[in-house]
Design brief:
Layout (H helix, E strand, L loop, with lengths): L6 E10 L3 H4 L18 E4 L10 E6 L2 E11 L4 E8 L3 E12 L2 E12 L5 H27 L5
Antiparallel strand pairs: 1-7, 2-3, 3-4, 4-5, 5-6, 6-7
Length: 152
């Protein structure tokens, strides 16, 4: 009997200390570089880095490269979604919901991960453990940028 492939779902929420109009663009793959120090996407489409629905890019994850696709970039609905694949390892779906709350923006984040091989079950579980506590770091990074970096 073989073990089942792991699937996880983790969720967290943060508050970005800026209005929606300022916060929204910062969750596009290109603009995220402004506040996430280790984020360095290599754009495939569009060829010139531009945040738009359907963008495709690569990111280095540890020893592998993952292919990312933006599946939703809907400002009106305040919804952003990315799917990335690490071949023969895992598939990750990241869904964000942004909503104005006064002069700030709430950001709900859901990570769904699925192992593509039994050997990847432990990787999925390790990533889920990191996902559970990622909100604190996201909040620290984006709010530091909003306080300091966005003024430059």
């Amino acid at each position: 009997m073989t073990a089942a492939l792991q699937r996880t779902r983790e969720q967290f929420a943060i508050v970005a200390d800026a209005p929606f109009e300022i916060t929204w663009p910062l969750f596009g793959a290109d603009k995220e570089r402004l506040w996430a120090p280790d984020w360095d996407p290599i754009f495939i489409w569009p060829e010139k880095a531009e945040d738009r629905e359907g963008m495709v890019f690569k990111i280095r994850h540890e020893k592998q490269t993952a292919v990312w696709v933006n599946t939703v970039l809907d400002r009106t609905a305040g919804r952003v979604q990315y799917v990335y694949v690490m071949p023969d390892v895992l598939v990750t779906v990241i869904t964000l919901k942004l909503m104005a709350i006064g002069h700030a923006t709430s950001v709900d984040v859901v990570y769904e991960r699925t192992a593509l091989a039994q050997a990847a079950n432990a990787i999925v579980m390790d990533k889920a453990a990191s996902d559970r506590v990622a909100g604190k770091e996201w909040s620290r990074q984006i709010n530091a940028y909003l306080r300091n970096g966005s003024q430059k």
